[in-house]
Amino acid sequence: MAVYIDKELCKSCKICASVCPKNVYAITHKVNKKGYNYMEAVNEKDCIACKKCEKSCPDFAIYIEK
Ligand code: SF4
Ligand code: SF4
Description:
A two-stranded antiparallel sheet has the order 1-4. By secondary structure, the chain is of the alpha+beta class. The mean pLDDT is about 95. It has two helices and four strands; from the N terminus they run βαββαβ. The protein has a single domain, classed as 2-Layer Sandwich (Alpha-Beta Plaits). Strand 2 and strand 3 form a beta hairpin. The protein binds iron/sulfur cluster (2 copies).
């Protein structure tokens, strides 16, 4: 299982974190080129590949690989 996040597409909306049943996501203090604090998959090992996050991200920043 792998969680890929394009940090340059992320707009810090936190939708992925709110839909994830496994608490995989956490917002970072790091900032992308557009000035947004981007998401990271801090608990990637807990991902069950349900793809709720991938489907919910309004900016298509997430890709889940099984
Ligand atoms: S849903 Fe997408 S844009 Fe929103 S915080 Fe998550 S990765 Fe970033
Ligand atoms: S695929 Fe499911 S478990 Fe994995 S990070 Fe996305 S919402 Fe969380």
